[in-house]
Every structure is written in C-alpha cells, then in structure tokens.
Design brief:
Strand order of the largest sheet: 1-2-3-4-5-6
Number of helices: 3
Shape: globular
Largest sheet: 6 strands, antiparallel
Number of domains: 1
Number of strands: 6
Helix content: 25-40%
Oligomer: single chain
Length: 125
C-alpha cells in the first residue's frame, strides 16, 4: 500500500489510499466518523481494476455491492458523485442515522475536487 491522504470535512473523514487486495488493486475512498466515541469506518469505495465495489459499514454488517464496468466505466467518477450527492443517504443506509444528520452536504460537495486530487495522488505513487 502506498501512502494515503486524509481529508476532514465536518463530522466525516475521508482516507484515500491505493489498495492491493486479493490480486486486485486500485484507489479506495474510505469514509470515517465518530460513532459513540469510536472512530468508525462508515463506507468504503474500492475503485479496483478488476472487481470494483463499495461497502456499507465494512467492519460491521458489510453491505458489499459490486460495480459493473459495463454500466459504470469510470468507478472513481461514480464514487465521487456518490460522495457529493448521496453521502448522507449512504451513511444512513450503513446504519448511522444520527451521524448522517450532522453531515454538512455543502461542505462535502465542495471537497470533491480535493478528493479527486487525492485519488490521483495515491494512484501515482
């Protein structure tokens, strides 16, 4: 794993890293928040080369969802749109309704260009 980039936006933190897992690889966007005093991974977007996917609550119930490259050819762009437009809903779906209500959607949307730069940066390392 190469270095990672961290970006805090209100009550959520984005950790962007380049992951290698099970013979696959690619950038990952991990979303964290404080749940009952514990740093908790809420969502993870694995923008892998072969089997891109995302997780709701990866370390909890792990709602795993595959992405079909025929339908979603640019999984990084798709993931960033989800962060920009649907983060609150996705965090609720992951089971963190109270935290989702505290997310500043406008600040998250404004952070997407910086998240894109972070993905590009970790992908170059």
């Amino acid at each position: 794993m190469s270095g990672n980039v961290t970006l805090e936006v209100g009550v959520v933190r984005f950790d962007v890293e380049y992951r290698r897992f099970g013979g696959d690889r690619g950038p990952a966007i991990r979303v964290f928040g404080n749940v009952d005093g514990k740093d908790t991974q809420l969502l993870r977007f694995d923008c892998f080369d072969t089997a891109p996917h995302y997780h709701y609550d990866p370390t909890g119930f792990d709602g795993y969802h595959s992405l079909d490259r025929a339908v979603v050819p640019d999984v990084v762009a798709w993931s960033l749109v989800q962060v920009r437009d649907n983060l609150r809903t996705m965090v609720k779906t992951a089971g963190y309704r109270d935290l989702a209500e505290k997310i500043d959607a406008a600040a998250v949307a404004a952070s997407v260009p910086e998240l894109r730069r972070a993905v590009d940066q970790v992908s170059q390392e």
